[in-house]
Amino acid sequence: MRTAIVTGASRGIGAAASLELSALGYAVAVNFKDNAEKAFETVSKIRALGGVAEAFKADVSEPDEVRRLFQSSEEALGRTEILVNNAGISKIVLLQDMGDDEISELLRVDLLGTILCSREAAKLMIPRKSGLIINIASMWGEVGASCETVYSACKAGVIGFTKALAKELGPSGIRVNCVSPGVIRTDMNSALDAETLGSLESDTPLLRLGTPKDVAKAIAFFAREDSSFITGQVLPVNGGIIV
């Protein structure tokens, strides 16, 4: 079967993307690190709609676990045609107040994880001369955010990595693109208080915050043949809050 691996797919954008890709006919490898219950919920939803999905536990910042994720997915579901690098964490804190471990964790999950998973995908896709990698960045990777400096740096790195890898893998028939969400109603933003969310909403020209499905639809666009001549691009899904 045609298979899509979605990292960090137990909830939010990852779960929504898994459902959209399943609707396009892909078997979905639903990756999770800790929240097995939510991951199996996503799998159940896909299966209830007639799709094929399996859950796979792996920490994307650990090379050995990433290798096992891709091997297990191919054995269970078949040929990997799409990788969605969605797994990520955020921390809202002043740089001078961040501990060494916090900085390291952000770099390892948000940037290194994308690199490690893309490397494994490339090993499988290059001999087959086809494939698609979709990286999830953030508008803060484009313009930066106070109190999210390391997160912003990681997501800026994801954008640069996307552009470079697209050039590297293009001759092998592999496309690499990036979706850059704005403020999305996910657990990651649940720490923001109502006043802050309201301010962000009013600052957005469309006067609403995004949903995981909004981002998932952009991911699905890259997965369709309509985008077959698009690579190395960053697609903002931000309601116009940055242009």
Care to describe what's here?
The chain is α/β, with parallel strands linked by helices. It has eight helices and seven strands, in the order E-H-E-H-E-H-E-H-E-H-H-E-H-H-E. It has a seven-stranded parallel sheet, sandwiched between helices. Helix 1 runs parallel beside helix 2 (36-48), helix 3 (63-77) runs parallel beside helix 4 (100-128) and helix 4 (100-128) runs parallel beside helix 6. The relative contact order is 0.15.
Q: In brief, what are we looking at here?
A:
The chain has helices spanning 12-23, 36-48, 63-77, 100-128, 139-143, 149-169, 194-203, 212-223, and strands spanning 3-6, 27-32, 53-57, 80-85, 131-136, 174-181, 234-237. A seven-stranded parallel beta sheet has the order 3-2-1-4-5-6-7, sandwiched between helices. The protein has a single domain (3-237), classed as 3-Layer(aba) Sandwich (Rossmann fold).
